[in-house]
Amino acid sequence: MKFGFGQALRRKEDEPLLRGQGRYVADVTPAGTLHAVVVRSPHAHARFAMTDLDRVRHMKGVRLLLTAEDVEHLDPMPCPGTIPDLPIDVPPYPVLASDVVRHVGDAVAFVVADTLAAAKDAAEAVSIDWQPLPHVIGVREALAPDAPRVFPDRSNLAFETAVGDAAATRAAFAAAAHVVEVTVVNQRVAANYLDTRGVIAEYDGERYTLTVGSQGSHIIRDIIGGMVMKLPPEKMRVVTHDVGGGFGTKLFPYREYALAAVAAERLRRPVKWVAERSEHFLADTHGRDNLSTAKLALDDKGRFLALDVEILADMGSYLSAYAPYIPWLGVGMASGVYDIPVAHVRLRGVYTNTVPVDAYRGAGRPEAAYLIERLVDVAARALDVAPDSLRRRNFIKPKAMPYRTPTGKVYDSGDFAGILARAQELSGWDGFNRRAAASRRAGKLRGIGISTYIEACGNNGPETATVTLDRDGGVTVLIGSQSSGQGHATAYAQLVAEHLDLPPDKVRVVQGDTDRIASGAGTGGSSSIPIGGVSVDRASRKLAAQIKELAADLLEAAVGDLEIADGAVRVVGTDRTVGFADLARHPRARPEQLRAAEAFGNEPPTFPNGAHIAEVEIDPQTGAVSVVNYVVVDDFGATLNPLLLEAQVHGGSVQGLGQALMEQVVYDPASGQLLSASLMDYALPRASDAPHFTFETRNVPCRTNPLGVKGAGEAGAIGSCPALINAVCDALWRAYGIRHLDMPATPARVWAAIDKARAHGR
Length: 762
Fold this sequence. Notes:
Shape: globular
CATH superfamily of the largest domain: Aldehyde oxidase/xanthine dehydrogenase, molybdopterin binding domain
Oligomer: single chain
CATH class of the largest domain: Alpha Beta
CATH topology of the largest domain: Aldehyde Oxidoreductase, domain 4
Distance between the termini: 62 Å
Number of strands: 28
Helix content: 25-40%
Largest sheet: 7 strands, mixed
Strand content: 15-25%
């Protein structure tokens, strides 16, 4: 098929976006729209009381001022994404705080006015008596016996769980020839998509309509409408148009969606709220923020015997929608691509007076990959073994598949040694010493780092696809996933083309409307192609069969004598054809013959894996790190569209580069203030920071997915951080004997490590 599976089609959705014809929440303003502003706490922890609110309510242009008392009928923000078989006492997460705030940016009031300027003026005029309370920043500090409590009626330990065999792990460590240990900080980061979150709420006297920038309209409807507002599904419609990036953070429900709905109901006018960039830092969930210690036991031949891991996961001040589940995902992937007989992983979630933390691209798996890959490099250094050699010695072998890990995951396929060998070949691994010598002559330090990763993803479902033959001969696909830049319209069109041989411009993909699409799992966990793609493929196959049956009747031929080509059905070997448009408009065509729906939900995840090799150069006088070479070889099972796939890997790798070298959400421990609440304070990678990527796939088909595919959207962000930090640490070790450096490896941090080493005579 010209446009089918495996073809490198360019994205069909780009032209309107490049021409500025996209339709984001900020672009939508229904007639009569009012504008809203959220009043937020300037304190990390405080009691408060609002006074003289009537004065604000009577300010010019002000239509409504909501406080906690006005939304008492709403249930708290829920946390449906907890850990299986682990009861967690979830503390109240109010839509508006009533008397106590627990982080800078906590919401206390919602102001609606004729204009945004009037709403801002009114928000600033709200008089609040603040009584600061003791606060705590950081997981270690929060678990100290005398630490201030985020919630007075419970400890700062939100939950605790473990997997693996503790006794067997202890025994293996006792018998080990070598034990190595590393403690790493996986720092807190912010998503920073192109368009900030927003909502437009409308109420017609019977039902609500929310227009939101989301990763899944059904999720927002079911949680905000069903759980918070206690509405039956038919009472709320959620619409999502274009979305400029989500990265997990737009998957979740947020307070502003419910507040705008309440305001629209009371005012009988559309109410619009769009976050400013600094508000994004204060109100949208953050990512990562783990403090982890890992120990590895090895025998006298350098073979891995056991793994012991302690993870402290900062949850922030409330449990966000899927917050506990995110580090739990990392627990399951703790052993990586290595044949480790036994392991024990302990996870503790901790409350702090900070913005809640939830999924961010990779969701627990980047944290797991970073920890095990740093640990393996530390072990190689301690044993004086080359890092690639130690990895090869301990990889799970292809013949061991399916392989059950000590944390209970079952890998179905993979060739980890083969992937690493190809990545080394592409990176010019054998010529590194020559390049390092040239860097030394130029006064620079050069290092090379490996990351061999595996992740579990591609099983967020079920997802239903409905494929309909339209009267113009094109096809409409209805599906509950949500594109936020991945290229779904192109990818799904290719799966339709596989069975109906239509060009992409004849396939219309509709997402993000709960009225048109009955159900949907949204987009998350790299599941759109492994789950949604299977649904589209099966529905398209079914529709093709139905079209042939209809055409057989019209052409007076047997179904087995028909073929589909170029938007028509023809009798093989003849010129007798009937076009799709004629079929769709034919009086004998019944609607059910022109429409097919199929659902798919895969219980076992897919396990994409790969190798990243990063080469860096460091200026020892400034600490600046330059990425001079970057190679990725991945196993994604099968490639639907190589252009889309490579773009996803590039984007994820650059996000990982941002975390590895520059990004960090910073709180002041003394005041609890968020110090990085703007793009003047929070560094993001620019185009000039991104290296030239060499990318290849070395696919091993997935045995548990009907298309053979493995999820790909998060992989770049999983493999990149450890490769880059391993490269930085390699350069620092060669020159100064520096064993470890935490992310982000900023120029200041790298220079300080070098300066300290020089002071000790290294």
